[in-house]
UniProtKB/TrEMBL annotation:
<dbReference type="Pfam" id="PF03321">
    <property type="entry name" value="GH3"/>
</dbReference>
<dbReference type="Pfam" id="PF23571">
    <property type="entry name" value="GH3_M"/>
</dbReference>
<dbReference type="Pfam" id="PF23572">
    <property type="entry name" value="GH3_C"/>
</dbReference>
<feature type="domain" description="GH3 C-terminal">
    <location>
        <begin position="318"/>
        <end position="437"/>
    </location>
</feature>
<protein>
    <submittedName>
        <fullName>GH3 family</fullName>
    </submittedName>
</protein>
<dbReference type="InterPro" id="IPR004993">
    <property type="entry name" value="GH3"/>
</dbReference>
<dbReference type="GO" id="GO:0005737">
    <property type="term" value="C:cytoplasm"/>
</dbReference>
<dbReference type="GO" id="GO:0016881">
    <property type="term" value="F:acid-amino acid ligase activity"/>
</dbReference>
<dbReference type="InterPro" id="IPR055377">
    <property type="entry name" value="GH3_M"/>
</dbReference>
<comment type="similarity">
    <text>Belongs to the IAA-amido conjugating enzyme family.</text>
</comment>
<keyword id="KW-0436">Ligase</keyword>
<feature type="domain" description="GH3 middle">
    <location>
        <begin position="223"/>
        <end position="302"/>
    </location>
</feature>
<dbReference type="InterPro" id="IPR055378">
    <property type="entry name" value="GH3_C"/>
</dbReference>
Amino acid sequence: MFNNSYVPGLDKGKGLYFLFVKSESKTSGGLPARPVLTSYYKSDHFKRRPYDPYNVYTSPNEAILCSDSSQSMYAQMLCGLLMRHEVLRLGAVFASGLLRAISFLQNNWKELARDISTGTLSSRIFDPAIKNRMSKILTKPDQELAEFLVGVCSQENWEGIITKIWPNTKYLDVIVTGAMAQYIPTLEYYSGGLPMACTMYASSESYFGINLKPMCKPSEVSYTIMPNMAYFEFLPHNHDGDGAAEASLDETSLVELANVEVGKEYELVITTYAGLCRYRVGDILRVTGFHNSAPQFKFIRRKNVLLSIESDKTDEAELQKAVENASRLFAEQGTRVIEYTSYAETKTIPGHYVIYWELLGRDQSNALISEEVMAKCCLEMEESLNSVYRQSRVADNSIGPLEIRVVQNGTFEELMDYAISRGASINQYKVPRCVSFTPIMELLDSRVVSAHFSPSLPHWSPERRR
């Protein structure tokens, strides 16, 4: 593993990685349809992998392969605590996943400490495979460790909690590029400023590249494309919008791997060994340089994606449809949504979608809708979002309830005035459908008259795919 040239001694300890399988469905032909990591974890390549001193996990396979995320998380956290002095690195696939693990510890440290103190496993674990495996790990009481955990976790200030509990941790192994960059300040708070290593760039479609400087700052991460993973082509990206990216893929519009230019942005197009032909991944990349002849790219963003907490991706058209569907619930009252915007709230764990609504009633004023109806609107919006979002809400618990914040009448006019004061053209101004700029957030939040959350989980089931 190339990280050892930057962080020596990784073969002397273990990695505490929070890894999970996700629910899967079947195609109409009976084939399993599931995320690539779930497929890998369930394969013999993972379950029967040869011993590698540089890749020893604290989490047993039985915990990783448990489809119940709560039991899986509990067992993985318990193992990480029991082996706390052996842990040299903490990780998860996404930054949000690692923060979810910290939140889980905040909510369950008393029960975990009790298990360690008594040497017995909590009754919340009923998966036979996990119970059998944990009986060989949690073999005796450890009162000293239990008292240590109580002393550390009972404090109100959790700054640097990662290095307090796992003092030998050298870095965090998480993806913090793209939408995950929003979690960097929170990770720095909990880790006491540990380095964050972004080692690879991949998706379910293909493995794309690696970061040859894994210990660099997150803002400096560039991935070197590995040309043997697939056939890579690039569609020049138009900064004025995604119009160029919507053009048909032909020989004249695509740029080959060797011909990309430093500083320019492209949409990634791949042809894979598995059968994808000129598949548009939807990632916008900027060329930062070359390693020998292989180009290096900085991940900029997902094309057209407005909101993302973890693996979910909600675009403008989908958000618009969700708002329209929800607003029908009070249309008969003569009330309508006249403007809206959104943002991904990640200060809470798990993060959740926040939608700002400005309402207009029959009397041309900001309408008042009952709490019950607004709660139904929140749930209706969630029902209108894609299956990945709903799976994250229902099965993975990685996204919290959607929130609608109703703002005062005239708020979006103030938002436009603010944009114009900063140089925007009054003729070309469009309400941003997603916001993140702090002064805009402060303006919106200062005008909130009521806030409402989804009262229950949206419908989701591992439906058969066509």
